[in-house]
Amino acid sequence: MGRALLLVLMLTAVASAKPRVALVAFEGDSNGQVQEVVADLLDGDYTVTGSKQVSRTIDKLGLDTDLTAKDLKKLANELEADAIVRGDLSQNGKRKLLHVKLFVNGKKIRGFKVEFASLKSEKFKQALKDKMLEKLGGEDEKKAKEEDAEVGDKKKKKKKGEEEEVAAKAGGEEEETGDKKKKKKGEEESAGGEEGSESGEESEKKAKKRTAAAGEEGDEPEGSVAAGVTPDSGHERGANVAAARVDVGPSLMGRTLTYNSRSFEQAPKNYSNAPVPGMRVAGELYPLAFGDPYGVASGLGLGAEYDQTFKLNLTSSVQMGTAFPVKQTHWSVGLRFRIVFGHKPTRPTLTLMGGYFNQQFIVDRSGLMEGNTIDLPDVRYKGFDPGLALRIPIVKALAFVASGQALLVTDAGPIQQPDSYGQARVTAAKAMVGVDILFGGHFGVRLAGEFAQYGFAFTGNGELAKDRDRDPTTPDVGGAADRYIGGTLTLAAYY
């Protein structure tokens, strides 16, 4: 009898011991109100270790805030915690989005997201609590205790082997009867795992909780706020790992063409035009990033860009009063490989890129009278454009962007014809710097400045390079620099 009483006391002590959950400070929760709500919801089912103690332990262990699985395991051991809960809070339009990430019993598990408008919403709190208990094992533990209590009542009726059965219960090794197994199977097949004997009203309440926890819209009482909870792969998708992005908006482009020539009467005149407006359309697609945006293969993608000047007219002293339209465009298409340095929307990315490009400046000379010429060569650049692009988030909604590309010109167009400046060695490059300003969860604005230059070193076999002064024995023009300076202000949509 004494041994049985001792075992019962031991079981009571074990049952009263609560699992420990440690809360890491939530990103974006500056005043700690959301974390306080989470702590209150878990209190009673778990012993909660607050973020201040957790932060001190992180500093003590010398861990980075971007905790790896190894860091989380070390932190859990130091705190003697059964689970660690982290969170990111962000704005999603007029509502807020809480991304919960969990580390339970030594391993990362699938996280979830919950959207809400008010922390006072009881529906939000209930949905969040139900999902937290489900992920942390609270519901399973509760059902296990109820089942153990039921088994215990049945075993008290048995006269033989009571102590052995109680010990087996303490170790979680008791066997279930055939009827109980059928009942348990029925519970597993039910939507929420509730007992089949519950009342209709209780079933309806629990069904509503499950609907909220699954992120579905349901009827809600007056004054409450709908809360949608959705499973997540464990990482938040930010603009730095967008699977698809499209930019559309106005552009400006100005051009200068200067010559390296000796000073003589027939020397070519430099050309320049002020920046003129146009339209820019650009896009990127990373098909495998629609799944896990942080996988290595998710960095493989495609990119394209097209820009055209709306209206540009050229005037010439050889035919005053006539405007000669100019077609100025550039486009490119190529491959991308994006490398992400971390698993957060505030982590930088480096993108390797390369493809094919085309840029042209063509004057419509159809309005020229016979015998008149415009001393400005047309260009139509073609070639390959390998380079790098860098994106560095300053905060989640603001990022610095920059890129640089070598332009490997395979053809410069009419300027290289024998009746123009002839063959040349062309060295070219382009660069971009700007900022991304994000809003509304999937939209942003990019403000960027751009520069490109094509440098020519003529070989001297073109008519305009050696015979402008009617003396082909001496070179007249040794080279030229064709520069383009402009910018864009585009609206971006990304996912």
Overall pLDDT score: 81
Radius of gyration: 35 Å
Number of domains: 2
H/E series, N to C?
HEHEHHEEEHHHHHEEEEEEEEEEEEHE
CATH uppermost class of the largest domain: Mainly Beta
Commentary on this structure:
- Helix 2 (33-42) packs across helix 5.
- The chain has ten helices and 18 strands.
- Strands 7, 8, 9, 10, 11, 12, 13, 14, 15, 16, 17 and 18 form a twelve-stranded antiparallel beta sheet that branches. A six-stranded mixed beta sheet has the order 2-1-3-4-5-6, sandwiched between helices.
- 24% of the residues lie in helices and 40% in strands.
- The protein has helices spanning 2-16, 33-42, 51-61, 69-79, 122-136, 138-156, 162-171, 178-189, 200-213, 463-466; strands spanning 20-23, 47-49, 83-92, 95-104, 107-116, 228-231, 244-261, 271-285, 300-309, 313-314, 324-340, 349-363, 379-384, 387-395, 398-411, 424-439, 443-458, 477-494.
- With 495 residues, it is of the alpha+beta class.
- It folds into two domains: 1-234, 3-Layer(aba) Sandwich (Rossmann fold), CATH 3.40.50; 239-494, OPCA outer membrane adhesin/invasin (Lipocalin).
Secondary structure topology:
Elements: H1 2-16, E1 20-23, H2 33-42, E2 47-49, H3 51-61, H4 69-79, E3 83-92, E4 95-104, E5 107-116, H5 122-136, H6 138-156, H7 162-171, H8 178-189, H9 200-213, E6 228-231, E7 244-261, E8 271-285, E9 300-309, E10 313-314, E11 324-340, E12 349-363, E13 379-384, E14 387-395, E15 398-411, E16 424-439, E17 443-458, H10 463-466, E18 477-494
Parallel strand pairs: 1-2, 1-3
Antiparallel strand pairs: 3-4, 4-5, 5-6, 7-8, 7-18, 8-9, 9-11, 10-11, 11-12, 12-13, 12-14, 13-15, 14-15, 15-16, 16-17, 17-18
Helix pairs in contact: 1-7, 2-5, 3-4, 5-9, 6-7
